[in-house]
Design goal:
This protein is an all-beta fold. The protein has a single domain, classed as Nucleic acid-binding proteins (OB fold (Dihydrolipoamide Acetyltransferase, E2P), Beta Barrel). It has no helices and 7 strands. It is globular and about 55 Å long.
Length: 147
């Protein structure tokens, strides 16, 4: 299984559709990377991920608005196409399994709400891993392996 995790801003308000009796929330997430090229010039590169979140919990859609910062996790897909200029281009898509609102713009004027709304699909793959730590005094010499 390949998993894609994205943190970025929504480029526009989400769209909720019903397809064959199932609900899907479509939204686009952008992440902009800033870096210096070989000549030392400041550059920007924005990567867009088209997201499809199949869920019965469409109430989250009211919060998926343009400018909102989100974390989304799911299975990636890549599609190639020919753009208007006749050049081959690619689209990165993700079938979302988990979406979480982070800080960022909000249309309700409440500002940042980091982490207070999280929705996951009902599939077993949406279970969040739990990291467990062991107190140092309970670690045996056999646990000192370098791998």
């Amino acid at each position: 299984m390949i998993k894609l995790q994205v943190i970025g801003n929504l480029g526009k308000d989400c769209i909720v559709k019903e397809i064959n009796g199932k609900n899907v929330i479509n939204f686009s997430v952008a992440h902009t990377e800033r870096f210096k090229d070989a000549q030392g010039n400041q550059k920007e590169r924005t990567t867009w991920v088209e997201c499809a979140y199949w869920t019965d919990r469409t109430a989250v859609a009211q919060y998926l608005t343009k400018g909102r910062t989100v974390y989304a996790e799911g299975s990636p897909e890549a599609d190639a196409y020919t753009n208007k200029e006749g050049q081959v281009a690619a689209t990165l898509r993700m079938r979302v399994q988990t979406v979480q609102l982070l800080g960022g713009n909000s249309s309700d004027g409440q500002g940042s709400n980091t982490g207070n709304v999280s929705h996951a699909s009902a599939s077993p793959t949406s279970v969040q891993p739990v990291m467990r730590t062991t107190p140092a005094e309970n670690v045996s010499a056999a646990d000192d392996l370098p791998f």
